[in-house]
Write a structure and sequence with these properties.
The chain has 19 helices and 9 strands. By secondary structure, the protein is α+β, with helices and mostly antiparallel strands. The strands form 3 sheets. Strands 1, 2, 3 and 4 form a 4-stranded antiparallel β-sheet that branches. Helix 11 runs antiparallel to helix 13 (326-335) and helix 16 crosses helix 17 (418-424).
Length: 448
């Protein structure tokens, strides 16, 4: 493993018992461990972050001289248990928020050093207290940087919070665990007027996208006078929901049906089918990566590219090698722009000199065109409709069913860790579980 990787950094909340105290009370500390070295940071009470939430009994745990929080072993055990009751719950939320902030800080320190960690962890927070204006500022910044898709998620989060609160401003202090729980419930509920449903509820995936943006500005601003609300539910904090894994992967037989489908020669349907197959065959790369492919990416018998999703940050760049099979070569020959100069995009989706906004629109249009035509293709071969994303998920699942290792699939997809790949393969694993569950109940076959 390479040195200076944040996954080597661990944090923990503990009682510092190296100094014996007569009354059995010890300071609560954050321990940070890296490269076999440990540093301890005292958890202090900041009344501006808690207000009147601490009762007199809870304030008894605060050392008067330096406002450090002290507990005996029995009290500490109750504070650290899952879902503690009062008077321990409020203190637990406060302490857990400090560790959650440390977890976020360590991810920002690359390469990791204790000095850099301390600079960021103890940095003085800004006084900005309007989360909506910060979201708007981030949307404009991402727009200017050409990150159009990310800008739109910040805009979506901003407009959604405005609609939920009915206000144009929202103090960070209002964004509590309870607020986030109510906002999530509102997002997942259809909007109704006079007894008539007028809109579909947002998906859990959309809720997750918006709230990750909210969490991002929390981490950026570090607002004063606010308890950090994000973390693990068992610690009394708010956990951002994850989208349910409803992605459907095709079997190899169904992919074969798509490949053998006979569209009208040279039609838009023909090109859409071939671009879908191209995505499937080329390690499941998405339409944005296909659109950005240039002839310069072709090196002999393989295509080498850096995923657009990770191209912005050097530490996160993910290079993918794609072997050019005969079918991939035929698709390039048929639909590739001619002449194929090094600086020329392979497929006629983008043009050199386009603005980021125009590029975004062109890629979105390509996705819509492919998906629309794949509805017709799937209808013609009588399988469930597929999208551009199905190609990526099918690539991973077909490989897994064929015996490829998760590590190989992860590298092929350009994932930075295998857990992301396992999420892709979750449906496959459920299918396998069902197959074996049905085998257990196949009594008739066993009697024959």
């Amino acid at each position: 493993m390479e040195p200076n990787q944040t996954k080597d950094v661990t944090t923990a909340i503990l009682l510092e018992k190296r100094m014996v105290r007569i009354n059995g009370y010890y300071p609560v500390k954050l321990r940070v461990t890296y490269d076999r070295k440990q540093k301890f940071y005292t958890i202090h009470y900041h009344p501006e972050k808690v207000g009147d939430d601490f009762t007199e009994q809870q304030k008894y745990w605060i050392k008067r001289t330096d406002k450090s929080i002290t507990l005996n072993e029995k009290e500490f055990k109750k504070v650290r248990q899952a879902n503690p009751s009062e008077p321990y719950k409020t203190l637990a939320v406060y302490i857990n928020a400090q560790e959650e902030q440390a977890q976020i800080t360590k991810e920002k320190v690359k390469p990791f050093t204790f000095e850099k960690f301390e600079d960021k962890y103890f940095a003085k927070a800004t006084t900005s207290n309007d989360i909506i204006s910060v979201l708007q500022g981030q949307a404009k910044e991402k727009q200017s940087a050409g990150k159009i898709s990310t800008a739109r998620t910040y805009e979506g989060a901003m407009n959604s919070l405005k609609e939920f609160t009915g206000k144009d401003k929202l103090p960070f202090t209002s964004v509590t665990v309870k607020f986030l729980q109510e906002y999530e419930k509102w997002m997942l509920t259809p909007k109704v007027i006079k007894g008539k449903k007028i809109s579909k509820p947002n998906s859990r995936a959309t809720v997750g996208i918006y709230l990750r943006d909210v969490r991002a500005v929390f981490n950026m601003v570090k607002p004063t006078g606010v308890i950090y609300p994000f973390g693990k539910t068992k610690h009394g904090l708010y956990a951002i929901p994850k989208g349910r894994n409803l992605k459907k992967a095709l079997t190899l037989a169904d992919v074969g049906k798509i490949a053998n489908y006979q569209p009208i020669e040279g039609s838009i349907e023909h090109r859409s089918r071939d671009l879908w197959l191209f995505s499937y065959l080329c390690n499941g790369i998405n339409t944005k990566d296909i659109a950005r492919l240039k002839y310069a990416n072709i090196h002999g018998d393989k295509i080498t590219l850096i995923r657009a999703k990770t191209a912005e940050t050097a530490e996160e760049q993910s290079t993918i090698d794609i072997m050019i099979t005969r079918l991939i070569g035929r698709i390039i020959d048929k639909w590739g722009v001619k002449p194929g100069t090094q600086d020329q995009y392979i497929f006629p989706i983008l043009r050199n000199g386009m603005t980021p906004q125009d590029e975004y629109k062109a890629i979105q249009q390509a996705v819509q065109t492919i998906n629309k035509n794949m509805v017709n293709v799937c209808s013609g071969i009588k399988i469930e409709k597929v999208t551009t994303y199905t190609a990526r998920h099918s690539y991973a699942t077909v490989l897994k069913r064929s015996g490829a290792s998760t590590e190989f699939i992860s590298e092929s997809l350009g994932h930075r860790n295998t857990q992301t790949t396992r999420n892709y393969l979750a449906n496959f694993e459920d299918d396998e579980k069902m197959k074996w569950a049905e085998t257990l109940a196949n009594f008739d076959a066993a009697e024959q």
